[in-house]
Amino acid sequence: MSDSAQDNFLKKEPVISLKKPVIVMPAYNAESTLKVTVEDIPPECYDELILVDDCSTDNTVEVAKSLGITVIQHKNNTGYGGNQKTCYDAALDHGADAVVMLHPDYQYDARTIPHFLGFIETGVCQVMMGSRIRTRKETLDSKMPLYKYLANRCLTIFENVVLGQNLGDFHSGFRCYSREVLETIPYHKNSDDFVFDSQFLAQAAYFGFRIGDAPVPCRYFDEASSINFKRSAEYGLLTLKTMGQFMLQKSRLASFDYFIPDEKKENE
What we know:
Number of strands: 7
Shape: globular
Radius of gyration: 18 Å
């Protein structure tokens, strides 16, 4: 934090004033849940909604357009990480000063978005995560599969130790970023698959951004996106690999491209 930003923070004055918060939604076959997701978003908390469709086979695009959402369609399926890359590129191109990533599957409670943006606006945090795990009972009552809950707990504890953080849920798909975070992190070097999220948080910690979280209610049901056991196991192993690469990068025993800032961004 710069001296001036620190002074403002200590005076309890906003470090930044959000003029264009943008909500991005990486979508694949979200036709049945998109409308209810959007209806829950407080209209005063965002300037624009952007949906990136990753070659859905249903009517996701048509529903999005009927709701007045800005729609970007991929010509080829790029994967979850590849979809996010397009989301963040579009948000930055459209002038966003804060970006909320919200799944359009109605899994996360979108009514909490203004509160998460408040942490960004005051400068308390530059990255905010929605924690699905306020208590074990609430999480399991939300129908999160037991194996996912246990894997989440083990991975989150390990990631907190490695990255020097104190988050309750490293694997939430509900996230808020300041513009500075997205302009600094070379996210195009990340995987196009689900491990994109783990790599992004490792990068955020590596570059020294302030990462925080707060509870967000969630729902698990048939239409909510979720990866199966096999894919979850692959994701967990790749997350462990990411933590190993972070430790090697920090100790200067090895160097990995996705921890190296883009030259273009450095020169801007």
